[in-house]
Write a structure and sequence with these properties.
This protein is mainly β. The protein has two helices and eight strands. Helix content is 9%, strand content 42%.
Length: 129
């Protein structure tokens, strides 16, 4: 019996954005155009204290998440979670390690602390003076 269905079934659907390779224009890097947008079922968890110590020192002050899924997520994919963009930094394939596990663990880092993603179809309005 595999334990994967119980882990993943408790998760929720998150959006994955896969981009074409970017390029430099006039000395500035420009992200590639969106190639695919799709949903995956995943369990999203914060990094443990020990996992956070494995993050490069300059990135430890940024939020990181663990994503457990059996779906196709790749390094450099963008994950939309809680209306914020995370970039997949590392993938650990935990497929059949003798425990009948068939999923992968992805570690993702918050892309831009000041940027909030607005899901399609959600209208935002300014209610100031």
């Amino acid at each position: 019996m595999s334990i994967t269905p119980s882990i993943i079934s408790r998760g929720k659907e998150i959006e994955v954005i896969r981009r074409k390779p970017g390029e430099f224009e006039n000395g500035f890097f420009v992200e590639g155009q969106v190639d695919k947008r799709f949903l995956v079922r995943a369990s999203v968890q914060p990094l443990s204290g020990m996992e956070r110590l494995q993050v490069p020192e300059g990135d430890r002050n940024r939020e990181h998440i663990n994503i457990f899924t059996k779906d196709d997520i790749r390094v450099d994919d963008t994950i939309i979670y809680n209306c914020r963009e995370f970039e997949v930094q590392r993938i650990d394939d935990w497929e059949d390690q003798g425990l009948n596990i068939t999923h992968r663990r992805c570690v993702a880092m918050l892309k831009d602390v000041n940027k909030q993603f607005t899901p399609a179809g959600v209208k935002t309005e300014f209610h100031g003076a």
